[in-house]
Amino acid sequence: MKVISIVGARPQLVKLAAVAAAFAGTGHEHLIVHTGQHYDADLSDVFFSGLGIPDPDVHLGVGSGSHGAQTGSVLTALDPVLEREQPDWVLVYGDTNSTIAGALSAVKQHLPVAHLEAGLRSFNRRMPEEHNRVLTDHCADLLLAPTEEAMRHLADEGLKDRAVLAGDVMVDICLRIRDAVRAGEHPRPELPEGIDPDQPFLLATLHRPDNTDDPARLAALVRSLASLPLPVALLAHPRLVARAAEHAIPLTQGSLHVGRPLPYAGLVAAVLASQGVVTDSGGLQKEAFLLERICTTVRPETEWVETVRTGWNTLVADPQLLPADAWAATVTRPVPTTDPGTPYGDGRAARNAVRIMEEWMTNG
Ligand code: UD1
User: Fold this and answer.
1) Which SUPFAM superfamilies match (predicted)?
2) 7, 92, 96, 104: residue to mutate for ligand 1 pocket, most atoms within 8 A of CB
3) What domains sit in the chain, N to C, each tagged with a CATH number?
């Protein structure tokens, strides 16, 4: 079996680490195409080196741009690669512009597409990711769903016959790295200046366009984080840094200490060292859940509803609508006492995905 993984953005590289490890030693041919959507070392290279992912076989080097330009550039650059390679599966990951471009290039060449992390829905059509994931699901041939909830969404949209529950590959990698961090196999993370990892602190990220691109909203969110009663390590995505600079919003204020995005092991270590997480990232909501830290998600909704149902994650659409002490109390609330269960699988999702692709190739 010949499979081409199409990746481009940071969260896809984490998932790729699990998939590449599952392919290793199987005898299948697994090629990696990096679209170049993320190109900063902090968002790309450190994941390859840190997670032991083989170097990409092809790098398309598309870089940043408007949604249309970025998606179109991936399509243009990818077409000849897929035409030349003729894989048995084109495997696309998650919901970025690289995902939809990879799926479109493949289906237009009649190449089978498998979508990893299929079936997630926020039902928020303002999110670019919601379009990417819905469109990708509807054009893919095999839908590898991470959760029962995702399976239900796919069934509701008439896609049940193409859907298989594989589990969430992020669990595979998160638990592996957690164990390595606990075993002392990684150096301590480089936290922002002023954060003492041995004293209580909170970990925060913000990068969604809905939170960063409106200056009034961004300024209010930064003020809310700055008002928290514990030091806050803000791991700043380039989009956040750029928008804050553009609108002269100081990121270093009050409780806030700003640093760069961390490599994956550093991020896992930072979550484990923290008292809790405040974020708008999908991946980090789940990582907090898996690492048993409370999470407060600054969004009106989440695709990862299981984290909320079990009490480990709370949604706060607009912190400024809460009195300051209620906001602080939410972010620093005690951990729930209920058993979180294993809604995202048991850490074998990537091997499941490889097996399902094998079965669907022969029987499918
Ligand atoms: C993308 C994904 C999002 C994912 C996120 C993870 C889409 C639509 N969005 O959002 O789902 O959660 O990745 O980080 O695909 N930039 C750099 N260096 C880089 C990459 C980007 O400075 O290496 C800056 C550029 O100014 C760029 C901006 O960040 O315009 C946004 O990058 P982009 O890849 O378009 O989207 P993300 O916000 O990273």
Assistant:
1) UDP-Glycosyltransferase/glycogen phosphorylase
2) 96
3) 2-168+345-363 (3.40.50.2000), 178-331 (3.40.50.2000)
